[in-house]
Amino acid sequence: MPARKPSLIMLAGLLLASTGLAAETQSDKIERGTSDPYKGDLSIFEDPNRAENLQIERVMDLLRIKTGSHVADIGAGSGWFAVRAARRVGSTGRVDAVEINPAYVRHIAKRVKKEKLPNIRAILGKTDDPLLSTASVDAVMLLKTYHEVEQPVRLLRKIRSAMRPGARLGVIDRGGIGTDHGLNAETVIKEAAQAGFELVEQHDFVKSEDVDYFLILRARD
Predict the structure, then answer these.
(1) What's the pTM value of the predicted model, to 2 decimals?
(2) 59, 216 in Cβ contact below 8 A?
(3) 37-219, what's its fold?
(4) SS3 at position 102
């Protein structure tokens, strides 16, 4: 029996779908400078005064991280934040520590075993996709990472799909133009809006950690 030829309606539908996808992908593209991802010694993240300077417990309170929460740490570096979040969420919670640097992922995996924190999962993500499960997390953190993300709207769309209803996204960074290891908060808020987020709160108590702002965002309804 000869194969059926696609109808004009089917062809038109495929054309519209591909055109729409291309338009959406194009609209996600950001044309601005970014900083090269950090590839140096991870001990830089382990300053003993860092938790106090950053007021990390207050940060986690505002992100509503609690026992049983599922948290994603995007750009996890040495796992500094992931470890603290894991201790807070306890055995009934989970932390996905996402990195694009394979060496850092291996470091986090070793740290998990050494510090006996089986509720941390080290993930080798992509630059525009953290590879998180859909509707799986209650809170997300990008700590001094956003200015390194080459296509933030694409990444944020993936993060948004991974967030449960009511989940919060935290961005901690310093002011700048993208290429100087910082990015102004206004730019972050604008790009996040393109990805379907809205600003909930903005704080500056993190300044003693050499950062300028802490943004809390949520997915728009």
Answers:
(1) 0.87
(2) no
(3) Rossmann fold (3.40.50)
(4) helix
